[in-house]
Amino acid sequence: MAALFIQLYRDEPLLQLPFRVLTSLMDIDEQLTHWRSSHALMVQPMLGSKIGTGGSSGYDYLESSLSGKRLFADLFDLSTYLIPRSQLPALSASLIWNLGFNQDCH
């Protein structure tokens, strides 16, 4: 729920860094998936259906590890719940103030 709030209101000053963190986590997940795919394609001609170096079933194991094995699948599913920015409910003034970089000097 917090990630969805961050995604929807990412332009608020205090949510810009958390949004970048979420984006970075998704980028890491994407790169790991790409690496797994490249690794499986590299291993296939070498091992075929032989047992892998770690005792796994080799290429078949690597290929099965590709489907649906995202680390942060929930972050990728957030887009299911996004609504057009024009339809976002306005935040209350006090919440906007709390999401800003404000100082209360006494």
TrEMBL record:
A GO biological process of this protein is: L-tryptophan catabolic process to acetyl-CoA
Report any Pfam family annotated for this entry. Trp_dioxygenase
Q: Which UniProt keywords apply?
A: Oxidoreductase
User: Which InterPro entries would you find in this protein's record?
Assistant: Trp/Indoleamine_2_3_dOase-like, Trp_2_3_dOase
EC numbers, comma separated = 1.13.11.11
Molecular function via GO = heme binding; L-tryptophan 2,3-dioxygenase activity; metal ion binding
Q: Report the protein name in the record.
A: Tryptophan 2,3-dioxygenase
The organism of origin for this protein? Candidatus Methylobacter favarea
Q: What is the lineage of its organism?
A: Bacteria, Pseudomonadati, Pseudomonadota, Gammaproteobacteria, Methylococcales
